[in-house]
Amino acid sequence: MSFTQKPKSAVRRRFSDFIYLYETLTVEFPTCCIPPLPDKHRIKYIKGDRFSTEFTMKRANSLERFLQRLSMHPVLQKSLHLSHFFESQDWSSYVHNVILHDKTHYINIGGVFEGLSDAFLNSFTKINNPNMLFIDMKEKIDKLDYGLVHIEKLISKMIKQKIDLEMDYSGMAFLFKQLAVLEPSLSRELTMFSEVIENTETNLKILREYIDSVYLTFIHDLISYTNTQKQLLKQRDQKQMDIEGLTEYLMKVDLEKERVIQSSGLLYLREKVENLTGIDHEQAKQDRLKKLEKKKDKLQKEIEISKIAGDTFDEETIRENNIFDKIKTKEIQESFSTFANENINFYKQVIENWTKIIPELEHAKQKNIINQSF
Asked: Which residues form a coiled coil (predicted)?
């Protein structure tokens, strides 16, 4: 890693260390989209498969991809925690000594919202003034997620088909071995034919294991990474809805203030009741106006703060989306290239194996023709 202090280092890390790193980066960089860790696969713990070769290989591939994504992120790669994670020979001591500071630099816009009813807050379920830039982002990510999910299903189906084909090759090889016993004159050729089938089965198994442990794991990891971007856009939309909620509430306060001034509607009836009970109407009116003005000032400040925070979050969302696009594009290119090479190597090996046996079969054919002529 070019951003680390040492050109090369070797350290041991447990999965719990990765979890700690993830949580630490989440606190250190609250506005960054932290790449997700692989699933814990709890079902493996129930089955007792958490130490199986297949499970550990898939998890290792996912964890390596997690670190690569961190190292490619222009902001996250600058973290001292990440640097220590890569280089520290005494990681446990570092974890015990480190003190996490809340570096959140965008402002929580709770304030006025804390005093509002749940019914009022829940009424803002849609954005009134959607931004086309973020709509396009969401549509693009949704399409990517849709395509990846379908690819994942097709690859899973392909793996099952290859397992069935491996069993067919195994059965065919066994039958040709049996046939070699029954046909002594063709024993050599039939045995060679059986061995080629077994080699084909072996090569197919190697390809299938690669697709399962590497390629399918990559697709699954990319789906998880895509979901983090979807969550980021949801957070961004929620901030805009919060601002719109505050703005609408401010409009209601202005409307109520205008009604108090004009003493219209229900306020007119309230004024009559106050007159009958001996309450100083003018003083009560001024008190209500002061409360409304105070609430209005507070709302205006909250809206101003929220807009600044919202604009900042918008910029960071755009930045994170661009970073995601670059990382995703690089990963897809490399993964597709490797996938293609693995398939090419498989077919090359199959062709090579079957090509070797052709001269032997031709020789046996010629030998049989000569024997028949006599």
From this structure: 282-309
* Domain endpoint, select from 109, 144, 175: 109
Instruction: Please give the single-letter amino acid code of residue 360.
Output: E
Q: How confident is the model at residue 75 (pLDDT cuts 50, 70, 90)?
A: very high
Say if residue 253 is in the same domain as residue 355: yes
For the chain, the domain total comes to 2
Give 5's Cβ-side CA count (13 Å radius): 9
What is the three-state SS of 101-129? CCCCCCCCCCHHHHHCCHHHHHCCCCCCC
Average pLDDT estimate for 285-298: 87
Residues 96 and 184 in one domain: no
Same domain for 163 and 83? no
User: Of 347, 85, 350, which is closest to residue 198 (Cα–Cα)?
Assistant: 350
Structural domain contains residue 150: no
Global pTM reads 0.80
Query: Is residue 357 scored above 90 in pLDDT?
Result: no
Going by pLDDT thresholds of 50, 70 and 90, the confidence category of residue 25 is very high
Asked whether residue 136 is assigned to any structural domain, the reply reads: no
Q: Is 95 exposed, middle or buried (0-12, 13-18, 19+ CB in 10 A)?
A: middle
> Do residues 87 and 171 share a domain?
no
How many Cα atoms are found within 13 Å in the side-chain-facing hemisphere of 111?
A: 20
CA 101 to each of CA 24, 33, 195, 213, 313: distance values in angstroms, whole numbers, following the listed order: 10, 19, 64, 38, 20
Alpha carbons 329 and 335: distance in angstroms, whole number: 10
Helix, strand or coil for residue 235?
helix
In this predicted model, what pLDDT tens digit does every residue of 111-130 receive, in sequence order? 444 444 444 444 446 788 88
CA dihedral sign, ordered 253, 259, 262, 266: negative
